[in-house]
Design brief:
By secondary structure, the chain is an alpha/beta fold. The protein has seven helices and seven strands. The protein has a single domain (about 5-225), classed as NAD(P)-binding Rossmann-like Domain (Rossmann fold), CATH 3.40.50. It is globular.
């Protein structure tokens, strides 16, 4: 049985990923900064939940160390924690950039770093980051500057990991949604057509494919999960 760590597990995408990977017969280790809200999984013997401050490097490293000791091998990590902020460069002060940096980059990096060392020692592993289209398209990113800047760092991090792990079966991927179909997005964009967006379940299926044996041939992967948005 493979083991997956899923951060941001209480969020819309996190819930979908927990459901998907339990269906795929993974041992699921869910992580969030808040109490377990995944009632559907509580009685599953292959599910566990941990409250961790992933913005704290020492806390993140201790969590990884303890998780490896308890499970021997971590095969996949879905690093889903993030935050959003609007504002162009004139409206974006340094404090806003720092906040987005902590939410969108540090929460991923503080886990990815020790997990990468573990996966390299095993010769196998998948790190999956959640990107953002404004980080790839300046026309969209200019009005969500702090968000786009800090999300863009995940693409560079994944590229550096893939270069370091070239020739092995350890890879980093970035999944890039357009607009995720959530209740909040429907409320904030009432005139849009949610059928054009991408569901959390569809993104979870992409991540399951990346993590499966069928994804073993993938390298340097950026998955643009846009649907028609």
């Amino acid at each position: 049985m493979k083991t997956v760590i899923i951060t941001g597990a209480n969020g819309n995408l996190g819930v979908a990923c927990v459901q998907q990977f339990l269906q795929e017969d993974y041992r699921v280790i869910a992580v969030d900064g808040k109490d377990n809200q995944l009632g559907f999984a509580r009685d599953n013997k292959h599910f566990s939940f941990f409250t961790v401050d992933l913005g704290n490097e020492a806390a993140a490293a201790a969590f990884v160390e303890n998780t490896i000791k308890a499970n021997e091998q971590i095969h996949t990590a879905l690093l889903l924690v993030g935050g959003f902020a609007s504002g162009n460069i004139a409206a974006t002060e340094g404090a806003q950039v720092q906040k987005m940096f902590s939410l969108n980059f540090e929460t991923a990096y503080f886990l990815a770093r020790p997990l990468l060392a573990h996966m390299q020692s095993k010769g196998n592993g998948r790190l999956v980051f959640i990107g953002a289209r404004p980080a790839l398209q300046p026309a969209q990113g200019k009005d969500v500057l702090a968000y786009a800047l800090t999300k863009s760092m995940l693409f560079t991090l994944a590229a550096c990991i893939n270069e370091e792990c070239r020739g092995s079966n350890v890879t980093a991927s970035v999944v890039v949604p357009s607009i995720i179909d959530t209740a909040l997005n429907r409320k904030s964009m009432p005139d849009a057509n949610p059928a054009d967006w991408v569901s959390p379940a569809a993104i979870a299926e992409v991540m399951a494919f990346i993590s499966s044996g069928k994804g073993d041939v993938l390298r340097e992967s950026i998955f643009k999960v846009y649907n028609n948005a």
